[in-house]
Amino acid sequence: MKRAARWPVAAILLTAAGCGGGGGTSPTSPVSRHPVQLVLFYDENGNGSAEPTENAAVPDVDVDIAGQTGRSAKVTGLTTVPDVPDGPHTVALRSTTVPPYYRLSGTPPSVSVPQAGAGTVALTLPIGSNRANRYLTFGDSITDGLGSRDIDGFRGPLEEALQRHFGRGVVEADGLGGSKSDDGSARITSVINRVRPAYTLILYGTNDWKRCNGEVPCHTVDSLQSMIGAVKSISSLPVLGTIPPCNPHDNLPERNEWITRMNVAVRAMAAQEGVPVADVHAGFVREANGRLEDLFVDLVHPNDRGYRVIANEFFRAITSRASGSSSTSLRSLFRRP
User: Fold this and answer.
1) Cα Rg for the chain, rounded, in angstroms?
2) Which of 70, 226, 268, 310 lies in disulfide reach of 81, CB 3.0 to 4.6 Å?
C-alpha cells in the first residue's frame, strides 16, 4: 500500500446516504453481491502493513461498506460485511465505535468486490517511541492494590480484560501509599520516563481530603491537570479516573459529599483536556446499589469486588467512546447501616 499521511477516522464517516459503489440499477438487472472480510489491526509502526509481530486487534468497531455493516471481533479483529455489491468501494469506520486515540494509518481503505482474500484495515496510536500495548496505572495505595486478597488490586483484572479484548496488553502498577495528588504531580515524570507506557492511567485524589479541608476544587484538579500534561509531553495516552467514594460506614458524610463535588470539577477538566475518563465514582455507585460499604475493606480501600469496578471503568474508558454516568441521591449514596 502506498505510504500516505494518516487520516483521522472522522474523515471517512458514513453519510446518511451511505458510501461506496455506483448508482442505482434496474430491477431487471440485479447486482451480484458478496461478503467482504477485513481484519482491523493495531499498526504499531504506522507503515500501513500488517507485520508478523503486529497481532493486536481493534475490536468492536462498526465497518460500513456500501450501506452494509459488520463489526470487528475481539482478539482477531475480523469483520464480515455481508451482501456488498460487486465493484470498488470505500471502507468507512463509524467513529463512535472506534476506541479513543486510534486513527487510520495511511489512506482511507478501499476494497474491490468480490475479494481475492481477506483485506486489512490498519489503525495506529500516536505514542511516539513508547512501548506498544503497555499500560501504566499511576496513583496511591489503591493503585498499589492494598485491601485486595492477592495485593494485585485492579491491575490483574484490567490486564485480563485487555488481553481478552485486544489480544495483547501488559499492565504495570506504580502506586505510592499515602501519597496525595501533588505528590503524584511531582513524581510522575520520572516514572513515565522509566516505563514509557503507551497509556498512563491516573487515579489520584483520595488522600487529598484532609488537606483540602472540604474545599472544591482545592489543589487536586490542578495536580491532575499537571499529571496529564506530563503524560502528553512524552506522547503517552492519558486516561483519568474519577476519585472513588469512601466507605460511608467509617467516614463522615462530608467526605463523600466533597468527593462527589470534586469529581464534577475533575470531569470538566478532563473534557477540557480531551482526555477519556474512567468514571470510577459512577461505577461504584452502580455496583453498590445503595450499599456502598459492601465494596470496602476499610475506610478507603476497596475489596476485590470494588477493585473489579475500577478495572471495569478503566477498561471501558480505554476501549469505548461511549460515556456513561450514574446518579443517585446523596441520601442513598451515603447512608449508614
Assistant:
1) 23
2) 70
Q: CA-to-CA distance for 226 and 320, rounded, in angstroms?
A: 25
CA distance 135 to 195: 9
What domains appear along the chain, each with residue ranges and CATH number? 9-124 (2.60.40.2610), 131-333 (3.40.50.1110)
pLDDT tens column, 81-103? 999 999 999 999 999 999 999 99
What residue has cell string 455493516? 69
Give 44's contacts (C-beta < 8 A, 6+ positions apart): 51, 53, 54, 56, 124, 132
Would you put residue 64 in left (φ > 0), alpha (ψ -120 to 50) or beta?
A: beta
pLDDT tens sequence across 199-252:
999 999 999 999 998 899 899 999 999 999 999 999 999 999 999 999 999 899
The DSSP bridge pattern shows strands 131-139 and 170-175 to be parallel
For residues 320 and 162, is the Cβ–Cβ distance under 8 A?
A: no
Residue 206 three-state SS? helix
Task: Please identify which residue in the block is written with the cell numbers 463523600.
Answer: 256
Name the DSSP class of 302. Answer: B
For 127, phi and psi rounded to 5 degrees?
-110, 10
Contact 74, 7 (CB under 8 A): no
Measured in Å, how far apart are the chain's first and last C-alpha atoms?
64
* H helix intervals, 55-205: 141-144, 155-166, 181-195
